[in-house]
Structure formats: structure tokens, C-alpha cells
Amino acid sequence: MQMLGDRRDGVPDIPHAVAHLLMMPADPGSGLAPRRRYADGMSTAARPRRRPVLAVLDVAVGAVALLFGLVLGLYALGTYFVFSSPRCSGCDTGPLAVYVIVGIGLTVLIYGLGLGFFVVRMIQRRYGWYFPVAALVLLYAVFFVIAALVGAWYKGVSS
Fold it and tell me: The whole model's pTM is what?
């Protein structure tokens, strides 16, 4: 007596989804056999090759964005330190200190993340130019937001 899902040789047919969950090979005749994977999660399928021109352009754009980000970050840090010494006597500098600390922290964090993700993507031999560019845009935005907050604080103190 043959049960539903049993083959003639007595081995039950296992659907691909269940076989994948059980880490069992699927029926080779079904065309649904999973790719062989290594312990580190790498697949046996070869990665697509990057074109040499695009790889060089990727590194060049990322490096230039990191350089501009470093210059902007150092400029912003210097400006934040200038902001931290108000020219008023007897005024409450609590909000100003918070703005300066948040500005310094965000500047270092954003630049560090952009640099770190770029390096990791280069080690993986994948495109990563967009991380330094995004970091540069965020550094620019954070600088002007902090400058606007400090400017509003100074306007409130002087009036």
C-alpha cells in the first residue's frame, strides 16, 4: 500500500520548504535543491565581477568624500569649541553645552560610521562609495542644524 507522498522506493517525498528547514537535501529531480552553503554563510555561487574602471571610481569617490568629510568634520569640531565659550556673563549655558556635546558626538559618530562601512565594503570587494557620500551629506546637515540651534540660543540670550 502506497501512502500519499511516498515514492516507489519507500523514501518519502519531502517538500522543498520542509527540507530546507530540516537541512535535508530536496528531491534532486525536482530542481529545487538548495545551493551548497559554507559554515560562514558564503554561497558556492560566484559573485559578479566588478569592472576595473568602476572599482577604481568607487575607491576614488569614496576617498574624496571621506577627505571632504574629514575637513568638514574638523571645521565643525573647531566651530563647536568656539560655540562652547559664550561671550555673555551670567547667562544659562546649559542648552548651549548640550548642543555642543550633541554636535561633537554626531560628527564623530557619522564620520566613523561612514569610514567603517566604506572599509568593510572594500574588504568585501563590493561598491561602497555611497556610505562616505551619505556621511558627508549628514555631516553638512548636522553642522547647520547645530549652528541654527546655537544661533537661536544666542538670539534668545541677547534679547
Answer: 0.63
